[in-house]
Prior knowledge:
Blueprint: H1 2-14, E1 18-24, E2 30-38, E3 43-51, E4 65-69, H2 98-104, E5 108-112, H3 139-153, E6 163-168, H4 170-181, E7 188-192, E8 197-200, E9 207-210, E10 222-228, H5 234-247, E11 251-256, H6 265-277, E12 286-290, E13 295-297, E14 300-304, E15 311-318, E16 321-327, E17 336-344, E18 354-361, E19 366-373, E20 381-386, E21 389-395, E22 403-410, E23 416-417, E24 421-430, E25 436-445, E26 450-454, E27 456-462, E28 467-469, E29 474-478, E30 485-493, E31 499-509
Parallel strand pairs: 4-5, 4-6, 6-7, 7-10, 10-11, 23-31
Antiparallel strand pairs: 1-2, 2-3, 3-5, 8-9, 12-15, 13-14, 14-17, 15-16, 16-21, 17-20, 18-19, 18-21, 22-24, 24-28, 24-29, 25-27, 25-30, 26-29, 30-31
Amino acid sequence: xxxxxxxxxxxxxxxxxxxxxxxxxxxxxxxxxxxxxxxxxxxxxxxxxxxxxxxxxxxxxxxxxxxxxxxxxxxxxxxxxxxxxxxxxxxxxxxxxxxxxxxxxxxxxxxxxxxxxxxxxxxxxxxxxxxxxxxxxxxxxxxxxxxxxxxxxxxxxxxxxxxxxxxxxxxxxxxxxxxxxxxxxxxxxxxxxxxxxxxxxxxxxxxxxxxxxxxxxxxxxxxxxxxxxxxxxxxxxxxxxxxxxxxxxxxxxxxxxxxxxxxxxxxxxxxxxxxxxxxxxxxxxxxxxxxxxxxxxxxxxxxxxxxxxxxxxxxxxxxxxxxxxxxxxxxxxxxxxxxxxxxxxxxxxxxxxxxxxxxxxxxxxxxxxxxxxxxxxxxxxxxxxxxxxxxxxxxxxxxxxxxxxxxxxxxxxxxxxxxxxxxxxxxxxxxxxxxxxxxxxxxxxxxxxxxxxxxxxxxxxxxxxxxxxxxxxxxxxxxxxxxxxxxxxxxxxxxxxxxxxxxxxxxxxxxxxxx
Length: 515
């Protein structure tokens, strides 16, 4: 045993890990409390890592990683003073705990420290610098740095397909926030009784962040929520489920006979392990909302001079373009046209080649076209302001239409009421470099709670940088009064058999609320 401990210490020191403590548990799961210097925070940060049996005997073997974020009143080491956060080892959570799972599965679990005390303050129990924002520590921004350190110093499989994030309570909030901010870094998220909303973001201009508004951030990720039927915030979870189950095909939840806890930990971690075995594909088209003025997602880099509260929103991004705006709040807060932005694409375009950018400011219905040259890596940097911009990216030498949905109106008062036939008007924009001829669209529902009564419509010819509304409206009917939002699919075609597919959501109101 002494020889094994010395070898372990040597490996950790050689890897640049500061070894603080170590326990060998039943099943020979190794728990190490360690630390590293964070350049993001400018200080030493702690974490606990759970290593599976045989980790040191098989140095060439690589493992997937689950990052687990603790809740209020806890740190990275051991269990906290409240019984709800006893989930690490031995008899914690009736044996359904982290060490128990790692003992039976080839996986590494990393538990970061959420401690957020300001210099000179007394020790306190609230982690992660959320609700309210008190320090300049930004734990989401720290996540990529921690991942890079773990991948460098432990035997991990260092790709998104073998990386997941989970957490309890305030840590559950963090798992959804961090996972939604970095979908390109993880493949699955598991949330135990997570808090539904908090004030978050930069210290000088925080925002109210509600998970219920962020469902588009999770494209390409498997997402799950576990909560108890006696959880004191279960009503928020029920509200979330009403929306997310209607608009997300990659979301599931389970209710346990429990209070606020890591209920069903083994099942949740099993869900994450199944995602490692069969990871979801990267999305072809995606959307993202971020509270920070600068961020990166799916190899797109967004920069701005925003120095106040707000949300930067990217929608329907793919190689042909995207929509972008900056809003005061979600979902439809005021726009911030005084903010200047730039979006740098991934290296997916021809090197040093000319492209035509069609930029339509939908707020003022004004379009401009200009030539933009890709760099020697095949990236484009597109600049505009924080208004509502629809950006089309078109190869200069190629004439092709580029159609997208830019306006939706349901009913005479733009209200969709359950139990009634609802007329739907859709406006298309052609942000391409050739007119779209004989344009047609076919509307379909994504859930059985909707009956599409009239799903086809003609748009005729849609000129370059021009908009067109369908000649006749679409019609649908909501069959139940328990639905609060519906997701639709629209397929657009033209005479040359070009095809565009988009999805959009429409809020649904009960008749009782409209009188």
